[in-house]
Amino acid sequence: MTPELAEVMTGACYCLAARKAARKLVRLYDSALAPHGLTVAQFSSLAWIKAMKRPTVQRMADRMELDQSALSRGLVPLEREGLVTSEPDPEDGRRKVLRLTPKGEARLSDAAVAWKQAQRQVEETQDDGGIDDLVDALSRLGAV
Question: Suppose 86 and one of 43, 96, 97, 127 were both cysteines; which one would form an S-S bond, judging by CB atoms 3.0 to 4.6 Å apart?
Answer without folding.
Answer: 96
